[in-house]
Every structure is written in structure tokens, then in C-alpha cells.
Protein 1
Amino acid sequence: MCGIVGYIGTKKASPILINGLIRLEYRGYDSAGISTIEKDGLSMMKDKGRVKNLYQLEGMDNLNGTIGIAHTRWATHGKPSKENSHPHMDNSKTFSVVHNGIIENYNELKNFLADNGYTFYSQTDTEVIPNLVHYYYNKDEKNDSLKFLRAVKNACCDLKGSFAIEIICKDYPDHMIVTRKDSPLVIGKGEQENYISSDIPAILSFTRNFYLLNDYELAILSRDTIEFYDKHLTILKKEPKNIEWDATSAEKDGYEDFMLKEIYEQPTAIRETIGAKLNEATKCEFSELNFTKEYLSSLNNIYIVACGTAMHAGLAGKNVLEKLCKINTQVDVASEFRYRDPLVDEKTLCIFISQSGETADTIAALKLCKQKGAKTLALTNVIGSSITREADFSIYTHAGPEIAVASTKAYTSQVILITILAIYFAEILEIAHEQVDLLKRDILELPRKLEETLALSESIQSFSKKVYQEKDIFFLGRGIDETVAKEGSLKLKEISYIHSESYPAGELKHGPIALIENDITVVSIITDKNLVEKMVSNIQEVITRGAKTLVITNQDIDETMFDMTIKIPKTNSFISPILSIVPLQLFSYYISKGKGLDVDKPRNLAKSVTVE
Ligand code: M6R
């Protein structure tokens, strides 16, 4: 949601900025723009629509500046339009700003600035920022090298809400200032050049050395230097983080779409996430954690809080934490949890799952739990992301960058990591030894079984061809399979725009079966041997009413009654979602392709939901 890019160096900035924006397209946007410092002052090129349209804007070829800022906007205040696109300048065209986030007190600031003679040309909250910086800049009587920095710092102290901001000033043609609060921003250090981005993959091909800012910290960048300051303008020392992700992991690498590539990367992502944490001979190891038997035995509750797909991974986490560790576990959608005064105290462990580590509601829920005295643990894919800076503990999936909006490898990596976490707890608690041994063995076999599952892709593609024009598709499951039905249904909705519902199969007769009519498609997941008969009876009920059926199973059942059965490898029920979701990911992918849709960038959606 909104992307920012910045460049300062020796090369022409505009193509670097536009290419950076293209790499951030997956975050979701409706307008784009760039601003550079030219010999005659600040340039600004922007419009609604796709990033590549920027190349067509008159004057773009004439930009030669080697410092610039860029933005993709996902409209919040004011419709998508040229005026509302970023960058925004102050009235005197001294400052140019791009901003990701929401300024909650923009009305108040706008009135204040209007009273001081400023005029506004857009409906955005952002436009107050360059004008407020200008207001402080003008008031400052000192004309030293820190005047620009002081003005930005003073303006930011007045802002309420969330922001990641890049700002350039025509009076300081060799400098750029960036700052953030609750919105993502990374600084990439190169040789005689520095980069800014909302996330790491967009600039991974230029550098592996990244700096991260904490809330309200500022950085002033030149071609060769990066200086860091806190909100009182005290100089800070920071060490860069070396990111191990391979630059090609942010490329399509011969695949038609990122989503397909990421589906096929799952065996590797699982292997990497298991890493050295789990083996058959020794106890599970999380060097980042220091939980004791005493602490875990004292817990009254675990809460898993997340959004979307990450929340579905949390449901698999609940299953294993309750069954293996015998700890009462609840799963909540972050945007609901925050507002329902949850019963959280020092005896609660709160786990937050987020691929990006930047989801606004999840981070806010984490802050709430901290206030209530609970220990907080972030489970994320992005080192140094905002959530990791808030949580008491952080553990990481090693899925590599996930670019497609529809989450695939992040989900399966989250499920495996929370399962390993549960094993780690069980080993500390000295319980369930036999179950743990079996589960460990099954986990280590997962990458191979995932490869076998991916090999089923052709049959799934052929079934998808039969149903891609449907209006409604239902997903059914029981127990752990119902959590997979939820994730399968979400995947289908987001990339195919087909209306879809998922239900616990036993609930059908309590209402939803009224929707089942001739030729409707029902997808069912059956991996729990204790629930096979019940599931088969439920499927028979929909067949009787004319439904077409796709069944994903690892059980030996009579397949003749279904239109298509996808037989996946058998595995431990705690980790069965990691295999059973794969056919459903492929199912959604092929339906979306059949409809000719943009699989990686579905309409209205953003990869990283940084507003509440
Ligand atoms: O980055 P996060 O894991 O916190 O994102 C949470 C959801 O926005 C995300 O899982 C979303 O539901 C995906 N688009 C689903 O494919």
C-alpha cells in the first residue's frame, strides 16, 4: 500500500526511480510520480494510472538530476487524480515530499497553515507536510547546514498518525532527508550512491546493506554519507544489516507470474525455515527465545493475532499448540481483537504472525498486548520489519521475498514455523515425547512431499479449466481441513474475483446448503482419517443437489463419486495444511489465468496493508 523510492548518487535518478516503483507495483497503487532536483530547481512528474505511463510524460526525458524521490499512491484521502498523486510541493516550490501513511491531524494542520497564508491544491493529507516544513524553515533565523533538518524535524513533531517520508529541498541539492513512524522505509547503502525504498526487494539488485530507522528517527543522505538523528537531533550510530536474500529471488526467473514461482518455491522455503532449528537427534533450538518450563506452565492463554492468510496460518498454530502443548490458544483477526478489550495479562503469551511485518492492525494489536503486560512474539518473514522492532521476541520464516499479493509460500512457512515453535514448547514442558518424535520425522519429509504435490499441477489445471467461469465456488472441510478451506477460499476470491465461501462441512445443513444448486462447484479437503465418513456424507449431500465436486485428500476413499480427486501424500495431521493448500493455490492460479486476470496484482488489493 503506497510505495516510496529514493535515489541519490552519480547516475541519472529518473530511470532508477521509475524502475524502483515498478518493483513496488505489487504493493498496490492507483497513481505514481517522481520529483528530482534539476539545475533550475525541483521537477515534478506525476499522474494517476500505471507507473510505466510516467515514461510518456512530457519533459521526462529532460530530467538529468542525480537525486530524486518517487511514489506509488493507494488513495485514502482524495480520489486517484494527478493533483492528489505524490510528490507534493509547498507553495514556494522549495520542498518536494512523498509520504506513505496517514496524517490523522491533517485538517487541524491545514487550517493552521491556511491561517498562515498557505494554499492547498489537493485533497490529500500529505500536502500539509511540505508546507509545514516550509513554515518552520522560514521561521528559522539560523542559516547553517542543519536548517533543512531542523525544519523537517519540527514539522514531523506536529504530525499525528503514521508516516514514511522522503523530502528534498532545492536549497540543499546534494541532500535528501527521510524519516518514519509506523510505516515501512529502508535505506540501502551503495558505493557513491544511496537508495530508499518501502521494502527490501525493490532495491535488492543494488545493495545487500540496509539501514533501518526506528519511529521518529531521521536520516540525512548525501551521495557518500548517511547520518542518523533521533527526534532531538542527537546523532545516532547505526550498523547496516546484511540481508542474505538473493537478488534473483525478487525476479520472475522464467515463470509467467510471481505467484506461480512462489508456489513452486515452497519446498525450498520450508527447507530453509526448518533450517537448523529442528532435527531428530536434538531438541528444537530457537536462539532468539528464552522461554522456561516455569513460564510456559504459568500461561493461562496464548493469543495468535494476525490478518488474512497469516491468520489462517494461526489457526493451524492453534491446532498444534492446543493438541501438542495443551495450552489454551485463541486466534483473532487483528482488526477485531484490538477493539474488543481482550482478556490479556502477564500470564498471556501473544503471537503475531505477519509476512511483511508491516500490517498496521497487527502492529497496533501487538502494542496493545504489550501495554497489558503480556509477552509478545512476532513471527515474520522480513528481518528488521516494524513488528520486530515492537515485539519482545521475533522469529523468522525464511521464505525469501514474497512479491505476489496472494500469499502462498509465506503461509506454508508460517505453518511450519509455528509447528516447530510448538515442538520447542513441548520439549521445554517435557510432554508428548512420542508425538514430538513422529512429528519431527514427518516435518523433515515435508519438502520432498511438497515436490510430489506440486507434480499434480496438470490435473488441477484441467479441473480449473472446467470451472473458471463459475460465479460461486464453495470450500468445505472439518477440523484442520476447515482452516485450509478458509485459506483456499480467500485465495480464490482475491485473484479470480469469483464469489466464494468456506464452511465447516457440518454446518452445511444449518443454512448454507440452501445455496447449493445444480452444477455449482464444491471443493472439499479430507485429510483427517477420523472424519472421512462424515465428510463423505456431507459431500454426498451436495452431489445429490447437483454439485460438481473436487476433493483434495490423502485418505483411501472411493473416488468414483467425485468429479475429480487430487490425491496428495499422507503426512502428520498437524502439518497437513502445508500439503493440502498447494492444490488450492494452483486451482486459484489457473482459474485467474483462465480469466485473463493479473494474478500478481489483483484489483483493489495491496501486498502490505499499512493503514488500519
Ligand atoms: O503481511 P501480512 O502477513 O501481515 O499480511 C496479512 C494479510 O494482508 C495477507 O495475508 C493477505 O490476506 C494476503 N493477500 C492473502 O493472500
Protein 2
Amino acid sequence: MYINGEWLKTGQTFSVSNPATGEHIGDVVDGGQAQALAAIDAASEAISSWSSATAYARAEILLNAYSLMMDRKQNLAELMTREQGKPLKAALNEVQYAADFLRWFAEEGKRVYGETIPSARADQRFMVRYQGIGVVAAITPWNYPISMLTRKIAPALAAGCTIVLKPAEATPLCAIAMFEILIEAGLPKGVANLVTASDPRPIGEEFCTNPAVKKLTFTGSTAVGKHLAQAAAPQLKRVSMELGGHAPFIVFDDADPVHAAKGASLLKFLNTGQACISPNRIFVQRDLFDTFIQTFSARVKKMKVGNGAEPGVSIGPLVNAAAVDKVAAQVDDALRKGAILHAGGERLEQGALAKGHFYAPTLLSGVTPEMRIYRQETFGPVAAVIAFDDYDEVIEKANDTNYGLAAYVYTQNLSRAMHAFEDLNFGIIGINDINPTSAAAPFGGMNESGLGREGAREGLAEYLETKLGGFSI
Ligand code: NAP
């Protein structure tokens, strides 16, 4: 826990373990409401000097942090694999993605331009200025334990805000490693504070009700996001919500089914399916269905499951035993209701896998709206494939969800691609592309997938207040 420029190393602790081996990998100080309050006080104290520092001075610290991340890329990735479970190659990719936010917002912070607006009155001038919103409280999940931090910290600091962050209980060590970097990069005391905790509720409560907090930014499940947005509403705090998803992945009959199956399998099993933009319903036009399933199933059967630190492993563990139970329950429910199993469909508990939380990469077809997996976010290595016949049918089915984060379309027809891009009600749409994300591009969802955007100009605007000056001259 890091508050007001000091590491708190004593007090009650909670334990952190490796989800692949069950091995104990660290103990972390367990904070509560008092520590959240102390951290908010520190951030309030620091706001005046940080917000009045130049964007250039703030950028220098963010760029130092970027360089330190690059120097420690391998160490950070190995820590992430140990703590969160993703294969080392994916962890290295995440460290780079995370660092990109620091570099991009360091630059973009220098471009918070104001505006002058002509007035209808000859003796009046309008000037618009954008300024940091103040103290920000941030809550992050475990599935992307470093990039979800920098996606909030970098724009907040670039905008002149100070921040208090609570990482997920499962991945505090990655957050601690990132704070060590920020401190070494030269961040003044109080500007960023870290509160680790095994029980998030008192911290969330303080974040939502303390009047010094001007903005709450949350990434996590839709249920918790709704709860926090409600708790923050009485003070009309600004909120950003990056929540769950249920992405459709649509393969039209003019696409190359082999290429599409490769894309779908890479994306579906990324991070063992524990990604908010993971495809949850894969719609394949009937003519391509058999080739698609054959290719997909052959790829799934070749995937190596295990400890992400071992070479060749592409599927790591799930975060905990409850996550395995949820996946198993969804698969059992689908099979009971008539889905066809092409690969996987079982817990993996043999040999070295016994101590971790593993579920076999699974391919189901014949998935119908009556099955839980059709609507519930899966968050595990299960691909659900559904055949369709025409454009209108598939767009209607794809949009039939309360979520609205990501969607994917495979087609070689430009006109169809453009129509689908316009007709799908999702915040992020990959067209023949399985990675439509970048620090420079706005990330976020519609409907119950959230409020606001992260990354890009939009991601900086989330931390800025607009101020209008009307000058009579
Ligand atoms: P979660 O259970 O909602 O937890 C997210 C964070 O909120 C954790 O730090 C958690 O702390 C904390 N939290 C839980 N209950 C809280 C409460 N009552 N008050 C304050 N904080 C609370 O979600 P998760 O299981 O960690 O993450 C998976 C979810 O995140 C999925 O739905 C996924 O789609 C979504 N996600 C969305 C995006 C996006 O950009 N849209 C990105 C990544 C993940 P503890 O860890 O201590 O419980």
C-alpha cells in the first residue's frame, strides 16, 4: 500500500497465489476505509501543485515511467504470468500495451488546447479552457492487471488530476510493481496512491461518498459497476465505467473460413477467454459452417494448456476455482439443452494441472438463446458457434444483448462491412481484425457495457472539466 509518498508495510495482510500452481507468491497489506480516506486526503493535498505543474513537466514523469517499463518488460511480464496466469508471450504484449498509454498520454497532455468562440455581441469574447477534474478514484480488475492501471493513471496524471487506485485482490503485486516504477520515475508524493485490500466494499464506499473525490473510474463487472454508479450518484460524481461484454463474431459467406476460424480461435482463447472483448457468440453463415468448425476444432485440439511460464503453453489457468465452476456450469447447461461438443468440455485436473484452476479449451456448436452461455458473459475458454442464414437475421441476433462492448465481422465485401459497422450496436468493431485496440483509439462500450471511453482523445476528456469564460471588454 502506498499513501502520501510512503509504503505501508505493516498491519494485516492477505495472501496472493499463482493460479497455475496454487503456490503462495506474496503477502500484501490489507487496507480498509481508513486507508482509503488517508489516500484521498493525500491526493487532495497534492492536487494544487500537480494541477499547476506544466503539461511538459507531467509528461516527463510519464515518459520516465514508460522507459522504466521497457527496461523491466521481462520482469513485469514474468510477475504477471505468476500472479494472473496468462502465458508469458501474452504478458509481454500486455506490458507493451500498458506502457503505450504512458507514452501516448504524455504527449496528448500537451495538446489540451482551449478555444475562443466568436460572440454575437461586439463587446464580448468567449474563451473555453479545459482543466483537470481533481481527485480521481480508480478501481481495476485482475484480467489485465497492468494495462487497466495505466489506461486510467496515464490520462488522469496527464490531465493534472491526482489519483487513488484500488487494484483487484487477485493481482495486487502487479500494481505494486507499477507504483515502484511511478515513484522511480519521479512522481511527487500524494499524486498517485495505492490502496490494496481483500474486501473491496469499504474502499468502494469511501470512493463513492467522499466529497473530495470528483471522479470515479471503474473497470470490472456490470453488476459492480451499476452498484458503484448508484453509490456515486447522490454527489453527482463523474463516472467512467468499463464493464462486461458479450461480443458477437460474425463470419459471412464471402469470408475465407480458414482465416476466420484462425482469427476466432486466437481471439476467443486470448487470456483463457478472460477478456471483456472476447467473442461470446460466434455466428457463421451456413455455407461455411462445416469448414469453419473443422478448422476451429483442429486448432483447439492442438492448444497446449498449462502454466503460462512454460514454453509452448497458449492456455493458462482461470483466475480461481469459482471461475472454473462458472464455466463448467455454462457448458453443462448448454449440453443438457442440446449443444454439440466438438472439443474440450471438461475440467483439467491431471498431474501438474491438479493444483491450478484449469478448464479445457472447448468448442460448442448448436448454441441457442435458451442456453445460459448465449446471454451470460463466459469469461473462460469456451467458444459457442451458431449458424445463420442472412444479414438481417444475424445483425438482429448480434444486437440482441444488454451488452455493447465489442463485435467482429469477417467479410470480403466492402459494402457489407460498412453496413455491419453501422448497424451493430457496439463501441468497438473489428472488421477482419481481431485486435481493434490501441492507446490512440477510443475503447469502451454501449448499453450495459459502460459509460465513457478509455484511450485516445476521448480518454483524456474523461478527466477534464470544461470551463467557459465570458469576457465583456
Ligand atoms: P469485479 O468483480 O467487478 O471486480 C472489479 C474490481 O472491482 C476489483 O478490484 C474488485 O475487487 C472490485 N470490487 C468488487 N466489488 C466491489 C464493491 N462492492 N465495491 C468496490 N469495488 C468492488 O470484476 P472482475 O471479475 O475483477 O473482472 C472481470 C469483469 O471485468 C468482466 O465482466 C469483464 O468483462 C470486465 N472488464 C471490462 C473491461 C473493459 O474495458 N470494459 C476490461 C477488463 C475487464 P476484488 O478483486 O477485491 O473483488
